[in-house]
Amino acid sequence: MGPLLLVLLLALLLFGAGFAVKLLWWVAVIVLVVWLLGFLVRMTGADGARGRWYRW
What we know:
Keywords: Membrane, Transmembrane, Transmembrane helix. With 56 residues, this protein is mainly α. The protein has one helix at 2-43.
């Protein structure tokens, strides 16, 4: 019974990790799209001023 529970726990852990990795990929894609949109909007500004749109 112990090894069966251990295998079940391992399967649940791996399933959860796979879901978390997939979620992190989607978050990374969304952040990249937002960054690119901000970069493009700043480059095509109405006043023609070039600069950074972020403060680092």
